[in-house]
């Protein structure tokens, strides 16, 4: 299309633009209809070229601005009338003729050069950026931008603008570079470096800011080489910020800090040589109390980001903690004695961006990032001083600081816990209510961060001081917080420890419940629930007093302001029912269930908090009643199924839209930037959905065959949720439901055909996700669901050939991905640039990946166990090469151990038929008996030798005989019974046992048994011990001379062996009883002096164990 646009087209567009912003709804709707159904469908070329022309040439700046915005939005819309066979949806810009695109681009470049109105110029810049982005995006290959050859004029124009005498043009150029950094990321940097160097020193603040943001944006998108080359500009970026500080241009300063924070998060090592300078500069800003809170908080955030993303770098700066910690603690003192605080429930304070909250969060983040050794000493230079201050704000700050650092400093603080508790407790009676509140907070946090230790060692001291705070009637919020701290304490307390305090606790809690203040009543009920849950059967004493009160709350508190109170009451009553059990709860069961039903029918609003509490209360009552709950399923399930099928709300908004006004975070909206757009999801619905799916799993587990009417419906809901990538909790809850569903089918006895069809659908769903899943933390439950369900299906084959192939291919893909990541980590470790925090990340990855490898091994074992030789062909074709790679990897003991275990399972479940596959791997497994790198490799090799002996048959006889000297070498090595080696030793003993019992054709058993007897006992390996001791007992019953020895010389040793086995609990009945009987016979045959010596060698503690188990 030519650049000359008919005047009537322009007039029509001007009218439409005017109508689109009309206050008249009918006019506006008609214009929208015209745009969508006429212009976009019939004349898209004229629409876009006309808008571009108006954005460039119209006299009205507002209309120019709107034309630019609408051109951008229209160009990115999906083109109408696309063929249904197209697999990729094309935008209107994609289907524009090249000539039309060039006209549009030319108009906007002209507009960029001539526009003088700031708002219109910004809109034009944004449209140019978007066109450049989508043009390059369409040329993207392998997810990497390539140089855009279709808009060659853009970069020269931008460079000219960046050098222009007009500050507005310079600023505009950098606005576009910031939005579309790929424009320069592949270019020669020499000319650009000169441009940036000049503009970072520009006399105009907005140009300096624009250049700074552009440099950072380019660094974020560039290759490591380009990013490191541009790193030399970092000192100049700090100079830009310094200028804004000097001139108090705080808006510019915050914008620059936000950009720098993103760079620090993405590439913290660029700051390697600047950490000290950044620290001094940012602390200077933090301490400027005349600056706005956001400015100071942004400076602090940069320091925190560096600490979290590059703790290794930060730890090398000697004064980092000594500078930032007191600054954060000083910020924590910036709070007023607001009268509203005393009457509010504090529910909105967690999201508060006040300085004292930000300072508290800063200490928490620093402690978790840098650790106790760096943060604790500095903190406790100031905490005692502040506690002794006359200022209540200082005392409050000190106590909140203890709460904040406790988690991150727990390992070091544990040694000082008694001192810290004694430091905090006096402030529970401080003269100022907010200090008492902070002391309650500290006790609660310490109870959580030192769970178990604090409760066991300090319960008397803590509860003696904490419980009376609930009497503080003049300050209801302090009373409530003391009850909240009691929740933290009781979550990790032993019921016997708690019992002496129950009378005093419930006296206070009942008083709180009678307070008449809703938030206090809510907290009282929450605390009652927690105490009851911890006290368990010891709560029965208080049941008759408290349960009627809770029932009364549900009956009387019916208006909307009591919805949360009712929810917490349902939670409390159902937890009490769990604590006291079915029989005690029985008198109130029907009445409580009736109230739940009434509540469920009364809920009409989707955001009613009672919905969540109903879901969980019903599930607890199900656990209490067991199969007696089945009649209520038809009441419970419809809303539960509806909640499980909730779909989250999504929004795609323009970067310039006022997101907060339309999509408030308070309403649950969260946004992320994707390709220049803001993608939002409403998360509140996700929590309800997650809870609902968790409850479905609960019902399936508890009700078994009683869940029959809902099996197919629940299966069809949860299987697609394995791919619900918006919420990890939903995915994990969904996979946790699958095995219980299979169990329900098995218990319902619905016939073999039904059971297999049901299982096959679930299995196919699992394997489809396994094939492409990249999250190791989700692969663990996926594989667990697979093999646990396989176990439920029984010992025979339950997978079709198609499913067997799908499992094997998916597992092969996962193993190859695992191996590739393993090699990548090895290369990273070999790199000289590896930092301490990188090693920590790698170690965490390894733990996750090794967990997946273990689950894959268990899944393979399940398939071998159920399909045996029928699986060997597909295993040999697809997985054997991977196993061979793992087995022969000299660098990875983990791989070798895993491969040996898999080969052991192959032999165990295919027997003698395994030899054709195994023959090639025998030497490698034998070598692994002496593997010096990892005890687990030696243990796996010993175990596999035992499997060969027990299941391998005659083909393995020669190998088994040859392995005996090596096995005894392991048994008799120095430190054979050390913590590191004991499982190796016991597996070696077990392997000798199996070889002697099942595969002794190639050696004289009588020559081996004396050494075997002396190698006993086995007291740790509960899997191997039953076979070992059964074999021993059989030989002793047969009076085998090689076991008893000449003149029964071995009887004393054998008696000691049996005593150790019984005391350790490594065997259970019937083997344990048989051992005890044989021990008595053995002792009766010993000389009295020898028998006495044997008993004298047994410690008092071990004798008591034998007595408690009735073995004496």
Straight-line N-to-C gap: 103 Å
Mean pLDDT: 89
Structural class: mainly alpha
- Give the radius of gyration: 36 Å
The rough form would be described as globular
How many H/I helices?
A: 58
Helix percentage range: over 70%
Low-confidence stretches: 140-149
Give the total of beta strands.
3
Strand % is: under 5%
User: Strands of the largest sheet, in order across it?
Assistant: 1-3-2
Outline the biggest β-sheet: 3 strands, antiparallel
Would you mind describing this structure in some detail?
This protein is an all-alpha fold and 1112 residues long. 71% of the residues lie in helices and 1% in strands. Strands 1-3-2 form a 3-stranded antiparallel sheet. β2 and β3 form a beta hairpin. α2 crosses α3. The chain is globular, with a radius of gyration of 36 Å.
Please outline the helices and strands:
Layout lengths: L6 H14 L4 H18 L1 H14 L3 H15 L16 H4 L2 H17 L3 H21 L15 H9 L4 H13 L2 H4 L3 H11 L5 H17 L2 H7 L3 H13 L3 H17 L8 H12 L6 H17 L1 H5 L4 H13 L6 H5 L11 H16 L1 H16 L4 H14 L4 H4 L3 H8 L8 H17 L3 H14 L9 H15 L4 H4 L3 H12 L4 H18 L4 H17 L6 H18 L1 H21 L7 H16 L7 H12 L5 E4 L5 H4 L6 E6 L2 E6 L1 H20 L7 H11 L6 H21 L3 H19 L5 H17 L8 H30 L5 H32 L4 H16 L5 H18 L4 H4 L3 H7 L6 H17 L5 H15 L10 H17 L6 H11 L9 H13 L3 H4 L6 H14 L6 H14 L3 H9 L3 H9 L4
Antiparallel strand pairs: 1-3, 2-3
Helix pairs in contact: 1-2, 1-3, 2-3, 3-4, 3-6, 4-7, 6-7, 7-9, 8-9, 9-12, 12-13, 12-14, 12-15, 14-15, 15-17, 16-17, 16-19, 17-21, 19-21, 19-22, 21-22, 21-23, 22-23, 23-26, 26-27, 26-28, 27-28, 28-31, 30-31, 31-33, 32-33, 32-34, 33-34, 33-35, 34-35, 35-38, 36-38, 38-40, 39-40, 39-41, ...
């Amino acid at each position: 299309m030519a650049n000359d646009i008919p005047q009537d087209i322009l007039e029509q567009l001007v009218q439409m633009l005017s109508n689109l912003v009309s206050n008249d709804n009918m006019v506006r709707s008609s214009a929208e209809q015209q745009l969508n159904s006429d212009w976009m469908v019939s004349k898209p070329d004229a629409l876009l070229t006309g808008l571009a022309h108006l954005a460039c040439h119209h006299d009205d700046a507002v209309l120019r601005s709107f034309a630019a915005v609408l051109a951008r939005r229209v160009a990115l819309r999906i083109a109408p009338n696309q063929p249904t066979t197209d697999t990729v949806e094309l935008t209107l810009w994609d289907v524009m003729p090249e000539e039309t695109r060039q006209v549009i681009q030319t108009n906007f470049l002209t507009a960029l050069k001539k526009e003088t109105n700031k708002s219109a110029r910004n809109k034009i810049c944004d449209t140019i950026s978007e066109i450049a982005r989508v043009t390059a995006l369409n040329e993207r290959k392998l997810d990497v931008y390539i140089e855009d050859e279709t808009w060659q004029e853009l970069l020269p124009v931008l460079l000219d603008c960046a050098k222009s005498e007009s500050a507005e043009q310079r600023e505009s150029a950098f606005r576009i570079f910031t939005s579309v950094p790929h424009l320069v990321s592949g270019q020669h940097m020499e000319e650009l470096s000169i441009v940036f160097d000049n503009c970072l020193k520009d006399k105009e603040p907005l140009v300096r800011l624009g250049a700074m943001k552009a440099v950072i944006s380019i660094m974020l998108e560039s290759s490591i080489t380009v990013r490191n080359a541009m790193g030399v500009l970092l000192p100049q970026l700090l100079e830009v910020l310094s200028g804004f500080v000097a001139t108090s241009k705080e808006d510019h300063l915050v914008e620059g800090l936000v950009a720098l924070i993103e760079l620090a998060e993405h590439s913290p090592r660029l700051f390697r040589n600047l950490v000290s300078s950044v620290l001094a500069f940012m602390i200077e800003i933090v301490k400027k109390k005349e600056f706005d809170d956001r400015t100071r908080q942004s400076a602090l955030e940069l320091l925190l980001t560096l600490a979290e993303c590059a703790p290794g770098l930060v730890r090398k700066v000697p004064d980092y903690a000594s500078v930032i910690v007191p600054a954060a603690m000083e910020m924590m003192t910036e709070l007023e004695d607001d009268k509203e605080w005393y009457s509010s429930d504090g529910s909105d304070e967690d999201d508060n961006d006040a300085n004292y909250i930000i300072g508290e969060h800063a200490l928490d983040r620093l402690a978790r990032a840098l650790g106790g050794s760096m943060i604790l000493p500095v903190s406790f230079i100031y905490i005692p001083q502040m506690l002794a201050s006359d200022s209540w704000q200082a005392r409050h700050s000190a106590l909140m600081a203890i709460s904040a650092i406790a988690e991150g400093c727990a390992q070091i603080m544990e040694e000082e816990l008694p001192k810290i508790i004694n430091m905090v407790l006096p402030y529970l009676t401080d003269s100022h209510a907010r200090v008492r509140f902070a002391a309650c907070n500290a006790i609660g946090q310490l109870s959580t961060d030192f769970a178990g230790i604090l409760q066991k060692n300090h319960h008397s001291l803590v509860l003696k001081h904490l419980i009376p705070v609930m009497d503080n009637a003049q300050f209801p919020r302090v009373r409530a917080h003391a009850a909240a701290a009691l929740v933290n304490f009781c979550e990790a307390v032993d019921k016997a420890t708690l019992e002496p305090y129950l009378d005093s606790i419930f006296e206070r809690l009942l008083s709180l419940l009678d307070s008449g203040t809703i938030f206090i009543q809510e907290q009282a009920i929450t605390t009652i629930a927690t105490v009851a849950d911890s006290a368990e059967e010891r709560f029965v004493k208080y049941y008759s007093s408290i349960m009627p009160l809770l029932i009364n709350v549900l009956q009387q508190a019916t208006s909307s302001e009591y919805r949360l109170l009712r929810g917490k009451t349902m939670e409390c009553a159902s937890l009490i029912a769990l604590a006291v059990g079915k029989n005690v709860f029985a008198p109130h069961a029907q009445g409580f269930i009736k109230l739940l039903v009434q509540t469920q029918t009364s809920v009409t609003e989707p955001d009613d908090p009672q919905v969540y509490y109903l879901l969980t209360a019903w599930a607890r009552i199900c656990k209490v009643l067991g199969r007696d709950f089945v009649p209520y399923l038809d009441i419970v399930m419809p809303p539960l199924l509806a909640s499980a099928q909730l779909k989250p709300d999504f929004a795609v908004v323009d970067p310039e839209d006022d997101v907060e006004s339309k999509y408030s975070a308070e309403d649950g909206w969260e946004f992320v930037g994707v390709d220049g757009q803001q993608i939002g999801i409403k998360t509140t619905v996700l929590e309800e959905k997650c809870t609902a799916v968790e409850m479905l799993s609960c019902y399936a587990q508890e009700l078994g065959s009683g869940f029959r009417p809902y099996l197919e419906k629940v299966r069809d809901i949860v299987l697609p949720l394995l791919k619900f990538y918006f919420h990890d909790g939903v995915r994990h809850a969904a996979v946790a439901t699958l095995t219980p569903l299979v169990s329900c089918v098995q218990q319902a006895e619905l016939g073999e055909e039904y059971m297999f069809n049901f299982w096959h659908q679930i299995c196919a769903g699992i394997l489809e996700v396994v094939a492409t899943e990249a999250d190791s933390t989700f692969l663990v439950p996926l594989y667990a669901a697979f093999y646990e369900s396989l176990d439920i299906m029984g010992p025979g084959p339950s997978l079709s050939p198609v499913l067997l192939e799908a499992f094997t291919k998916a597992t092969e893909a996962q193993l190859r991905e695992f191996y590739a990541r393993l090699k990548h980590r090895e290369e990273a470790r070999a790199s000289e640039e590896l930092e301490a925090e990188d090693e920590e990340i790698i170690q965490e990855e390894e733990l996750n990946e090794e967990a997946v490898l273990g689950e894959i091994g268990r899944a393979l074992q399940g398939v071998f166990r159920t399909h045996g030789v029928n699986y060997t062909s597909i295993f040999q074709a697809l997985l054997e090469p991977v196993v061979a790679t793992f087995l022969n990897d000299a660098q990875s003991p983990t791989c070798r151990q895993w491969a040996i275990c898999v080969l052991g399972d192959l032999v165990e479940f295919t027997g003698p038929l395994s030899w054709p596959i195994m023959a090639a791997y025998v030497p490698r497994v034998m070598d692994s008996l002496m593997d010096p790198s990892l005890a687990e490799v030696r243990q796996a090799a010993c175990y596999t030798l035992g499997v060969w002996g027990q299941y391998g048959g005659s083909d393995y006889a020669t190998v088994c005989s040859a392995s005996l000297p090596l096995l005894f070498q392991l048994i008799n090595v120095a430190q054979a019974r050390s913590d590191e080696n004991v499982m190796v030793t016991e597996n070696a003993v077990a392997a000798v046992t199996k070889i002697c019992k099942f595969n002794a054709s190639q050696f004289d058993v009588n020559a081996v048994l004396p050494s075997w007897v002396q190698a006993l006992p086995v007291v740790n390996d509960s899997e191997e011990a039953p076979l070992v001791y059964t074999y021993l007992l059989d030989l002793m019953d047969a009076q085998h001379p090689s076991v008893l020895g000449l003149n029964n010389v071995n009887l004393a040793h054998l008696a000691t062996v049996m005593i150790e086995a019984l005391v350790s609990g490594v065997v259970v009945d019937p083997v344990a009883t048989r051992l005890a009987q044989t021990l008595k016979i053995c002792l009766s045959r010993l000389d009295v002096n020898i028998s006495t010596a044997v008993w004298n060698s047994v410690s008092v503690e071990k004798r008591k164990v034998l007595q408690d188990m009735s073995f004496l």
